[in-house]
Amino acid sequence: MKIYILRHGQTSWNTLRKLQGQTDIPLNENGILLARKTGAGLRNVPFDRVYSSPLRRSLETARLAVEGRNLEIVIDRRLEEISFGTWEGREFLPPEDIVGEDGKKEKFYFISRPDQYAVPPEGESFEQIIARTGEFLRDLAAKAGREAPDANILVSTHGCASRALLFNICNKTDIRDYWGPGIPANCAVSIASLQENGQWKLEKTDVVYY
């Protein structure tokens, strides 16, 4: 089995540097274009199944990436983006600040120091998103052994969730290594294959087709 992990296309909140989390923001015009170009770049991959986060930006990206193919998109909530709880919609400023409700800047540490990240009220931790994406991968591997060892699977998800999948695939243990090369670009694709021993092997990271 080979999986193609696809981050969703661009949204208006991406351009405004707002924390989206599980807020359901659709693709903007550029995001639609990027998804279609990515689909064209993947046109020679014979996908057997498509999984997507239920959030619109991910689901729209999946639909556009396999446009014209007779493929059902299976929605799986384990592929949702990390929840920022009550912080969703706040502005995220470089290098590592977030704008609070009072308009003042606060240190965020989500990217540069994930081991120091303070989970927002009603939000989700790195450990939680690693656990649920890891469960998704284990279920996928079990299904491969029973049904489709040679399948090509498209997995449409989000920036943080895609890195959680890679965290599991690469058997990482240190949260400080969570982001690897950084946040993936919109519509970047990482590719991993399931080995005979049941372990995943990362083959390519953040391939861009536009």
Describe the structure.
There is one protein chain. The protein has 210 residues and is an alpha/beta fold. The protein has a single domain, classed as 3-Layer(aba) Sandwich (Rossmann fold). Helices cover 28% and strands 20% of the residues. The strands form two sheets. Strands 3-2-7-1-8-9 form a six-stranded mixed β-sheet. The radius of gyration is 17 Å and the shape is globular.
Task: Report the strand count.
Answer: 9
CATH class: Alpha Beta
Helix proportion of residues, in percent?
A: 25-40%
User: Spans with pLDDT under 50 lasting ≥5 residues?
Assistant: none
**Broad shape:** globular
**What is the CA-based Rg, rounded?**
17 Å
Give the arrangement of secondary structure elements.
Layout: E1 2-7, H1 12-15, H2 29-41, E2 49-52, H3 56-65, E3 73-75, E4 92-93, E5 97-99, E6 105-107, H4 126-146, E7 152-157, H5 159-169, E8 189-194, E9 200-207
Helix pairs in contact: 2-3, 4-5
Concise synopsis of the structure shown:
The protein is an alpha/beta fold and 210 residues long.
Defining traits:
six-stranded mixed sheet; Rossmann fold; 210 residues; globular; three-stranded antiparallel sheet; 5 helices; alpha/beta
